[in-house]
Amino acid sequence: MTGPRTSRYARDVAVVAFAQSDHRRRTDELSEVEMVMPVLHEVLAATGLKAGEIGFTCSGSSDYLAGRAFSFTMTLDGVGAWPPISESHVEMDGAWALYEAWVKIQTGEADTALVYSYGKSSPGSVRDVLTRQLDPYYLAPLWPDSVALAALQAQALIDAGETDEPALAAIAARSRADAGANPHAQLRGALPQGDYQVRPLRTGDCPPVGDGVAAVVLAAGDLARALCARPAWITGIDHRIEAHGLGLRDLTDSPSTRTAAQHAGLFDAPVDTAELHAPFSSQEVVLRKALGLGDGVAVNPSGGALAANPMMAAGLIRIGEAAARIHRGASDRAVAHATSGPCLQQNLVAVLEGDRA
Description:
The protein is of the alpha/beta class. Helices cover 32% and strands 20% of the residues. The mean pLDDT is 94.
């Protein structure tokens, strides 16, 4: 027997499997298809499903990283061209692809979904590529890179008395130490903070540049229980966005994250795990405050984005890592967060729960 879970939606939907690649600084010898295929095979094998038994497939990636339009169509070779599939794509982190797949299942048009995302950042300069996310008239022509903008946010937090450089170094050290138990992480174990990249952020406060893939399988209702011994039920999910102009925002806070968390039901009960998509150590400070996380919550036990940050997959990995802890009984109620854009501009929050005996 299982006890009741809080559900606010028409259908109960769960993450029933999660897989990811080993995240590496460079994968020059691999194409995107060759990166994706082993992960897709692994996640499907975990459920016993065949590709033809998946009701909906959704992917997340960025043509800017690949340097060519509609690059995601190539990775469909990794999914398989036959039998014909119902498929979609988002030019976003895979967490938003998961949201689209979750909506598809809620409508009743599918009972299962395969969600995958990938990023191959190594061929170019990510710091420069990400300037294209900025306002095209005022900010983008100035070419402020992602680290410089994160440093503005970090300095605002320090000026407000909410953190300091030793506290940021402690976040980085804890994340990399926790990553020691994660065989997929790009950076593991104790690492020096290094030199300043843009003051007050040092190398250790910034995410590594690397390549990687993640995938999950979603399933509804009794089918989820048939496919997974302890499904990670998505009891709440929501995403919100801040103003595009950085000058219109308080960089020390994230109202959109807080609002998404409220609508996802995060504050209805305590959580024991939080997987936060905080590419910079200073952003964990902002997210902890927005989500009201106390010291008793295990934050980024996987190492988080400071240990591996494959563009367009790191947010989906946060959901997958939280789900995996529920699958193996290490967590009962977890929150997963994904972000996109400069200084936590867009934020998605998902609450996951396991069945209670």
